[in-house]
Write a structure and sequence with these properties.
The complex is a heterodimer of chains A (about 230) and B (about 210). With about 230 residues, chain A is α/β, with parallel strands linked by helices. Chain A is about 35% helix and about 20% strand. In chain B, helix 2 crosses helix 3. Helix content of chain B is about 30%, strand content about 25%. Classes of the chains: A alpha/beta (about 230), B alpha+beta (about 210).
Chain lengths: ~230, ~210
């Protein structure tokens, strides 16, 4: 279960606060996956008590967009900590879907990759199994088929430690790279933080999801949670 | 593949200090629901009286919504999110799929907090629970725990109090999640955001 609350001493109108929280949640807590399961209790609350002496913020305020962006960035930091915990996880993985025809489909594809048990076990095993990533993209329940063109898709691993080459291309314009530098792949996959980049090449929208690997420890923790 | 070394994440992700927003106090206690005398009950209260607070929430879209989810949603609907002054959270038992009795238990939790705050006429508290599904809350321990937090004034606004409340909402978490940051508005006024979260498994939320 995900529970959380965010509190601030800013004065924010309650309707505006609800809008702000919805906006930030759709870009943070609703973009994480540890195991693909949704709880009966998931809740995020936010309280703004107005202890700071400044005019109340509403949707027409000059500060509205600034505060909304700051709350979103803050919520992402908090949401990412949940993934970093991830019941036995050893890796924190950012799935970045770029150049999509629609934002919704970019998010659906990112979620599909993030929830794939086989992608997650491959990441744990440090196996550059691009086939599983492609498979998860292919079965994603897209809203619009224009979002995915099999001849335009690019999939890469991105190194997160500034080492070069930063990008390891796995699929280029729909063609699997059969001569992958396995040594470089091993180096990138050995990092605790990973990035999977999917360039759909069908538009300009993008979405991010944060996930983790699936380890033996997950089964140990969850095998007897109730008893 | 061999099992990889288990990483000790606590020192990596748990802060050692922090500054927190004005006008909030937090308290926590080991009520006895969790084993090993672990913290399992927390309350956050708004102490600022300069103007009414605002509250908002997003909830699970799972069709089987737990009693605290339905109860908190009712509170927000009936108040339009105005003058919410407390959140009470317990861990160890989710109070989920517990029917009418679960609803009564969730309401009792907020009633006790409202009473302690002196807000007897209007609902001003939200409630959250996490833990095992399908078991009733041990209300004797929870009620006593809530009263004890108030009567023994276990509230504080220092770093340890905030860290403890973030521990009190954990279940299988390997570390408490506490983030706090200061920001500046265009008019130069500083404000603070502090966030707590729990979650390690059963995580793929889609809240609305």
């Amino acid at each position: 279960t995900l529970l959380g609350f965010i509190v601030t001493d800013l004065p924010i109108e309650s309707k505006t606060l609800q809008k702000m929280l919805r906006h930030s949640t759709s870009r943070s807590f609703n973009c994480i996956s540890v195991d693909g399961d949704m709880s009966t209790n998931d809740t995020i609350c936010m309280i703004a008590n107005g202890a700071v002496d400044t005019p109340e913020i509403n949707e027409n305020s000059q500060e509205f967009k600034q505060v909304q962006d700051q709350v979103t960035e803050f919520a992402q930091r908090l949401a990412q900590l949940v993934v970093r915990d991830g019941e036995g996880s050893t890796k924190f993985v950012t799935v970045n879907v770029k150049n999509s025809y629609s934002f919704e489909d970019a998010k659906i594809i990112a979620e599909s990759i993030s929830n794939s048990m086989l992608v997650k076990t491959a990441l744990y095993g440090q196996d550059a199994n691009w086939g599983r990533i492609l498979c998860a993209i292919g079965y994603a329940k897209l809203n619009d088929l224009k979002s995915l063109n099999v001849d335009k898709i690019n999939v890469s691993f991105i190194a997160t430690d500034n080492s070069e080459p930063r990008e390891l291309k796995l699929i280029v314009n729909g063609v699997p790279q059969l001569n992958i530098d396995e040594e470089r792949a091993s180096e990138i996959l050995a990092l605790n933080d990973l990035e999977v980049l999917v360039n759909l090449g069908t538009g300009k929208e993008e979405a991010q999801f944060w996930t983790c690997d699936l380890s033996h420890e997950y089964v140990t923790i969850n095998g007897d949670y109730r008893s | 593949n061999t099992t990889r070394k288990v990483i000790d994440k606590y020192p990596l992700y748990v802060p050692k200090s922090g500054t927190f927003p004005k006008g909030f106090q937090v308290g926590s206690i080991a009520s006895g629901v969790k084993k090993n005398n672990a913290l399992d009950l927390g309350i956050i209260i708004n102490t600022n009286k300069s103007r009414p607070s605002s509250a908002a929430a997003v909830f699970t879209t799972n069709k089987f919504k737990a009693a605290p989810v339905l109860t908190s949603k009712n509170v927000l609907d009936s108040t339009n999110g105005v003058a919410i002054n407390a959140i009470v959270v317990n861990s160890g038992c989710a109070n989920s799929v517990t029917g009418e009795l679960g609803m009564q238990d969730a309401k009792e939790m907020i009633d006790i907090v409202n009473e302690q705050l002196g807000d007897k006429t209007s609902p001003s508290t939200l409630v959250m629970s996490t833990g095992v599904i399908g078991q009733r809350l041990q209300m004797n321990k929870i009620s006593e725990g809530i009263k004890k937090i108030f009567q023994e004034n276990k509230f504080g606004s220092d770093f340890t109090s905030w860290l403890n409340i973030s521990k009190s909402i954990c279940t299988t978490d390997t570390f408490p999640k506490l983030v706090t940051s200061k920001f500046k508005l265009l008019n130069g006024k500083e404000y603070t955001l502090t966030g707590l979260a729990k979650g390690a498994g059963m995580i793929c939320p889609n809240m609305a």
